[in-house]
Amino acid sequence: MSRPCTVINVVVPLGKRAQSRNIQRRRVSSRGVLLIRNAVDGNASSLNTGNPGGGGGNNPGPVDVDAWANPSLPRLAQVAVSAPQRVRRYFEEKPSRKLVWTGIALFFGFYGAGACTLAFGALAINDNVAGVVLVLFHELVSRAWWSRPKKDRGLGLRFAQAFKCGMVLALIADSFKLGS
C-alpha cells in the first residue's frame, strides 16, 4: 500500500545558477519540521516550518533519512536501514508501550533464567559455565546501566536491565524452592 505524496516544485540555488527540482513531501514530524525527499536522487532534507533551531538558511536543521525513499536499495536493506527509526517512532507514539515492553522483557528474563537453571541444574553439566555467563551478563548490564546518566539510557539498555531483573528474580525464586 503506497502512501499519498504531494509533488511540489522548489527552486534550489546551486552557485550562480538556480536549478528547479521536483520533490515529494513525505510526512510532518512531531517537531513540526517538514521532511522532504528529492525525487531526482533520493536525498533527504528538511525545511523550517517555524520551529527554532531547524531548517532554513545555512542551518538545514535535523535531517531524517527515509530509507523507503531510496529505490536503489533492495527491499531487505530498506527494512534494515529504517528499523531503528520505525522502532523509535513506535515507542514515541504511545509512551505506555515502553512500560509494556519493559514488563515483557522482565518476564522473558524470569523465564530464561528458570529454563537455564532447570536445564543446567538437572543435568549437572557445565553448571559453572552457566553461572559465569549469567553473572557476566548481570555485571555488564549493571555497569552499562549505572555508568550512564538517566537521560542517556536507551530503550535497548532499559530492556536489558528489565531482563536482568527478571533473571535475578527467577534465581531468587529457585533458591527458595531448593531451600538454600
Description:
- With 180 residues, the chain is α+β, with helices and mostly antiparallel strands.
- The protein has helices spanning 75-93, 96-123, 127-147, 155-178; strands at 6-14, 17-28, 34-38, 44-47.
- Strands 1-2-3-4 form a four-stranded antiparallel sheet, with no helix packed on it.
- The protein starts with 5 loop residues before the first strand and ends with a helix.
Q: Write the H/E string, N to C.
A: EEEEHHHH
Instruction: Supply Rg.
Output: 24 Å
Shape: elongated
Round the mean pLDDT to the nearest integer and report it: 73
Task: Write a concise synopsis of the structure shown.
It contains four helices and four strands. It is an alpha+beta fold and 180 residues long.
Features of the shown structure:
180 residues; alpha+beta; four-stranded antiparallel sheet; 4 helices; 4 strands
Topology diagram in text:
Layout: E1 6-14, E2 17-28, E3 34-38, E4 44-47, H1 75-93, H2 96-123, H3 127-147, H4 155-178
Antiparallel strand pairs: 1-2, 2-3, 3-4
Helix pairs in contact: 2-4, 3-4
